[in-house]
Specification:
Chain lengths: 421, 402
C-alpha cells in the first residue's frame, strides 16, 4: 500500500511538472501567434534616408549688354548695368533648359559677379530682373527694331527686385537675386515652344555703372550663373506631370460684344466653361496623389465681380464631350454632376483647386478616367452667385493662350510598381 | 491533457509560423529570408546536427536518425529574437519578437527499425518594415513598406534503420504560406492623398528530400541530406484601397536543390564535436517562371560546435545531467545588397535541462551575430536569439519489443 501511495505521489508530481511546462510553452506559442501582426507601427520600421537637397548650377549660354546708340556685339567680357552721366546700360542673359518637372526645384537664384564700377558707387543700384519674352541675339544692340520694353514680362509673378550695394572687395563682388518660382514653371514648359528667352537686368535708380563679368570674362567661375536647389529623388517615388486642356469652350447666353477668344464663367448671364484633358501620357498604373487645377484669369476681359472666385465650382462631367466647341446653349448636350468643388484664387489671377478634402473628389475622378472606368470624363466651371448680381470671370483658353497660361492640371502620381513576385 | 495541449498548440499555429526576419530577404523576386530548420539543441552547437544522434530530441535536419529513438517523441521550438539594424546613413532601429518555429512528432512503428513522423517548419519568413523618406515631388512624403508572412513546410517523415549503424529517411513535404507586402505613402501636405497598396503572395507546392545517417565507427558518425528542386505556385494579388486597378497573376517558382553534409566525432567522456556544411544553388536553381534571377547568390552555411552530454550513470548530480553546448557559424545569404554578397556570422551556446531524465528535456540556445557590412552592403544587422524547445518521449502507440 505504501509503495502504491508513493507511486501515485510521484506520478502526480511528474504530471504536474509536465502540465506546467506544456502550458508554459502553449501560452508562449499563443503569444507568438498573436504577435503576428502584419502591419507594424512606423516607429518600428527601419529608416533609410533618401532625398537629400542638392544644388546645381547653369552657366550663361548667351549674354550681352545694350547701350542706346552704342554698338555691342556680345563678345565683351563685361556686362554693364546702371547710369552714369546719361550713359545707360542694361544687360540680357540666358541659360540652358532647367531639368524637367520630375524633380521639384526648391529655390532659384541668379548670381552675377562685379569686378568694378564707373562713378561713385556709394549708393546702391536699385532695379529688377525681368523675364524676356522674345528671342534675341547677342548682337541685339545693333538691331534698331528690337525694343526691350516690348520683350519683357513686367508682371510681378515673374520678376524680382534687387539692390546691388557698393562693391565690397577689390577683386569680385557676387550679387545674388532670388528669382520667383513662377519662372521655373514657365521655363520648363516647352509645350508652346521655347519659353526660355532669359532675363533682363534693368535699373530703376542708379548714379553709377557696375561692370559684371560676362560669359566671355577672364574667370569662367565668375560668369553669370543660375543656381537651383532641388531634392534628389529616389526610384519608386512620385512623379509630376502637367496636362493641358485639349478642348475647352464656353456655353454663353449673351448677345453683346465680348472677346470670343476667352473662356467665360458667369453668374447673372448663362455662361459655363467646359474643359477636357487628355491623360494618355499618364501611365496606366499611376496612382493619383495630388491634383491641382489651374486657370489663369484674363484680367482685361473679366467684367464684373470677378473677385468672387470662391463662388466658382468645378464639376465633373460624365457624358460624351467630343463635339463640345460646337454646342450651344440650346443644344441637347447634357451632363451629369457628380461632385462639386470650390475653386479659389491661390495666387493673383490664378484660379486653382488644390485643397485636400475638396480636391479628393476630382483626384478620384481623374483616377477613374485613367483606369478607364470613366470613359467620358471632363470638367466644367459654374459660377454660383447666390444673389442677383452679375459676375463674370474670363479665363485664358487653350487655343489662344500659350504655355502655362492655358488651362492645365498638375498631377502628381505614384507609379505602382509590379509585385515582387 | 498533454497530448491535447500539444495538439492545440500545433494546430493553432500551423498557418502562422512567425519569425522576425532579415531585411536582406526583402527585395524583388525574393521570397523572404531562407530558414535553416535546425532544432534548438543544434543551434546551441552553432547549428550542426546532421550526424548528431540525440536520444531525447528530434533531429530536424536529418530524419534518418529518427528510427534510433525507441519512444514516441515530440519536439517543438520557439524563439525570441532581437535585432538592431543600422544603415550607412547612421540610422538604426531595434526590434524584437517572439516566434513559434514549428514542431515534429515521431512515432516508432517498429522500434529501432521504422519510424513515421509529421511536422511543420518555416522555410522562409518575411517580417520587416522599410521606410523611405522624402519621396514626394511637391511635398515631403514618407513611404513605408511592411512585409510579413511565412512559407512553411508540412513534412511527412518515413525513416528506416537498416541496422544499428545505418538509417535512411524519405521526406515528402507540402509547402504553403502567404507573404503580404503593404506599401503606404503619407505626405506632409494635406492636399495629397495617401497611397496604400497591398500585395499578397500565396504559395503552394510539393517537395521531396532524402536523408542518410551512417555510424560505422564508434567515434565518427556521418549524415547527409539532399532536397531535390521543388516547384511552388505563387498566386499574386495586388490591391489598393483607393483607386488603382486590381492585379492578379499566377507564377511558378522553382526552389533550388539543398545539400547538407555533417560529421560528428565523439571525444573523451561525454564530449562530442562536429560540424555541418550546407549549400543551395540559388544562383542558377532559383527560377521564376523558369528564368534565373539576377543578384541571387548561392546559399552557404558552415556550423561547428561542441557538446557535453549528460552522464550515463543513473544516479548523479543534476548539473552532470545538463547538456552544455557551444558553437560558431558563418553563412552566405542568398540575396545581395548594393551588388555585394551578404555574410552572416555568429556564436552560440546552449543548455539542455532534463525534466525527467531520458523522458523530457527543455533545450535552450542563445545565438548572437551579425549580418551584412555597412561599407559593402550599406546595412548591418546585429542580432541575438533565444531559442527554446520542449522534447518529450512517451510510450504513446508504441508496441514494446518483447
Amino acid at each position: 500500500m505504501k509503495k502504491l501511495n508513493l507511486m501515485f505521489s510521484q506520478i502526480g508530481k511528474y504530471m504536474r511538472i509536465k502540465i506546467i511546462v506544456v502550458s508554459f510553452f502553449g501560452l508562449l506559442a499563443f503569444w507568438a501567434c498573436e504577435e503576428a501582426n502584419p502591419i507594424r507601427d512606423e516607429g518600428n520600421d527601419v529608416l533609410q534616408a533618401y532625398g537629400q537637397m542638392e544644388s546645381d548650377t547653369l552657366y550663361a549660354i548667351a549674354d550681352t549688354f545694350f547701350v542706346e546708340g552704342k554698338v555691342n556685339t556680345g563678345s565683351s567680357p563685361k556686362l554693364l548695368l546702371g547710369n552714369n552721366q546719361d550713359f545707360e546700360g542694361r544687360f540680357l542673359v540666358k541659360f540652358s533648359t532647367l531639368p524637367n518637372d520630375t524633380i521639384a526645384i526648391d529655390s532659384l537664384k541668379i548670381i552675377v559677379s562685379a569686378p568694378g564700377s564707373f562713378g561713385d558707387d556709394t549708393n546702391p543700384i536699385l532695379g529688377k530682373v525681368y523675364r524676356v519674352t522674345g528671342a534675341w541675339e547677342e548682337s541685339v544692340n545693333t538691331d534698331p527694331t528690337w525694343d526691350y520694353l516690348n520683350n519683357i514680362d513686367i508682371s510681378p509673378e515673374t520678376s524680382a527686385s534687387f539692390e546691388f550695394p557698393k562693391l565690397d572687395s577689390t577683386s569680385y563682388t557676387d550679387y545674388e537675386v532670388e528669382l520667383p518660382s513662377r519662372l521655373v514653371d514657365i521655363w520648363r514648359d516647352t509645350t508652346a515652344g521655347d519659353q526660355n528667352h532669359g532675363l533682363l537686368f534693368d535699373f530703376d535708380g542708379a548714379d553709377h555703372i557696375k561692370e559684371f563679368s560676362s560669359r566671355e570674362g577672364f574667370f569662367s567661375s565668375r560668369r553669370p550663373r543660375l543656381v537651383f536647389t532641388y531634392r534628389d529623388e529616389v526610384k519608386d517615388t512620385t512623379l509630376r506631370d502637367t496636362i493641358y486642356a485639349t478642348m475647352d469652350a464656353s456655353l454663353i447666353d449673351y448677345k453683346g460684344i465680348f472677346d470670343q477668344s476667352k473662356i467665360y464663367v458667369a453668374a447673372g448671364y448663362e455662361a459655363n466653361a467646359f474643359f477636357k484633358f487628355n491623360f494618355d501620357s499618364i501611365p496606366a498604373n499611376a496612382y493619383m496623389v495630388s491634383v491641382e487645377f489651374r486657370f489663369t484669369e484674363d484680367t482685361l476681359s473679366s467684367l464684373v465681380n470677378s473677385n468672387r472666385t470662391t463662388e466658382i465650382y468645378l464639376r465633373n462631367v460624365t457624358t460624351e464631350f467630343n463635339q463640345l466647341p460646337f454646342y450651344r446653349i440650346d443644344s441637347t448636350f447634357t451632363f451629369n454632376v457628380n461632385h462639386s468643388v470650390v475653386l479659389t484664387e491661390s495666387t493673383p489671377h490664378i484660379l486653382s483647386l488644390r485643397d485636400s478634402r475638396r480636391a479628393v473628389v476630382s483626384r478620384s475622378f481623374i483616377q477613374d478616367i485613367i483606369n478607364q472606368f470613366m470613359i467620358h470624363g471632363s470638367f466644367y466651371l459654374q459660377f454660383v452667385n447666390p444673389g442677383n448680381d452679375i459676375s463674370v470671370y474670363a479665363i485664358e483658353s487653350s487655343e489662344n493662350a500659350t504655355g502655362i497660361f492655358r488651362p492645365h492640371i498638375i498631377l502628381e502620381y505614384y507609379v505602382q510598381t509590379a509585385p515582387r513576385l | 491533457m498533454r497530448k491535447l495541449s500539444l495538439l492545440i498548440t500545433l494546430v493553432f499555429c500551423s498557418g502562422t509560423l512567425w519569425a522576425s526576419s532579415s531585411i536582406f530577404g526583402f527585395g524583388p523576386n525574393l521570397i523572404g529570408s531562407y530558414q535553416y530548420q535546425y532544432s534548438t539543441s543544434a543551434l546551441g552547437r552553432g547549428g550542426y546536427e546532421m550526424a548528431y544522434l540525440d536520444s531525447m530530441n528530434l533531429n530536424q535536419m536529418n530524419f534518418a536518425t529518427w528510427p534510433f529513438l525507441s519512444r514516441t517523441t515530440v519536439s517543438f521550438n520557439m524563439s525570441y529574437q532581437g535585432m538592431n539594424i543600422e544603415s550607412q546613413s547612421g540610422q538604426s532601429q531595434f526590434d524584437s519578437k517572439a516566434n513559434f518555429n514549428g514542431g515534429f512528432i515521431a512515432w516508432p512503428l517498429i522500434q529501432k527499425r521504422l519510424t513515421l513522423g509529421i511536422g511543420l517548419a518555416p522555410l522562409s519568413v518575411s517580417d520587416l518594415g522599410v521606410q523611405i523618406q522624402n519621396v514626394g515631388v511637391g511635398t515631403k512624403g514618407i513611404q513605408t513598406v511592411n512585409s510579413s508572412g511565412t512559407i512553411s513546410e508540412a513534412k511527412v517523415v518515413i525513416a528506416l534503420a537498416l541496422n544499428k549503424n545505418m538509417g535512411f529517411a524519405l521526406v515528402p513535404s507540402f509547402t504553403f504560406g502567404m507573404i503580404r507586402d503593404f506599401v503606404r505613402i503619407k505626405f506632409d501636405d494635406i492636399a495629397y492623398g495617401d497611397v496604400a497598396i497591398e500585395n499578397n503572395y500565396q504559395f503552394t507546392g510539393f517537395g521531396l528530400a532524402g536523408n542518410a545517417y551512417l555510424n560505422f565507427w564508434d567515434f565518427l558518425a556521418l549524415g547527409a541530406k539532399i532536397k531535390v528542386p521543388s516547384s511552388l505556385t505563387v498566386k499574386t494579388e495586388q490591391r489598393s484601397i483607393v483607386a488603382a486597378k486590381p492585379y492578379d497573376d499566377i507564377r511558378s517558382i522553382t526552389l533550388p536543390f539543398d545539400i547538407v553534409v555533417g560529421a560528428n566525432i565523439k571525444l573523451w567522456g561525454q564530449w562530442q564535436i562536429g560540424g555541418d556544411l550546407a549549400y543551395q544553388n540559388w544562383h542558377n536553381g532559383y527560377l521564376l517562371d523558369n528564368v534565373a534571377m539576377d543578384n541571387i547568390n548561392d546559399g552557404l552555411r558552415l556550423g561547428v560546435g561542441i557538446e557535453r552530454g549528460p552522464e550515463e550513470k543513473k544516479y548523479t548530480s543534476y548539473f552532470k545531467n545538463i547538456n552544455i553546448r557551444g558553437g560558431a557559424f558563418v553563412s552566405q545569404l542568398n540575396s545581395s545588397s548594393q551588388g555585394e554578397k551578404i555574410h552572416e556570422y555568429g556564436l552560440s551556446f546552449g543548455f539542455g535541462f532534463p525534466i525527467i531524465k531520458n523522458q523530457n528535456r527543455i533545450d535552450m540556445a542563445f545565438e548572437f551575430g551579425q549580418r551584412g557590412d555597412l561599407d559593402l552592403n550599406f546595412l548591418r544587422e546585429m542580432f541575438f536569439r533565444f531559442n527554446f524547445s520542449l522534447s518529450t518521449n512517451e510510450l504513446w502507440f508504441v508496441q514494446q519489443e518483447r
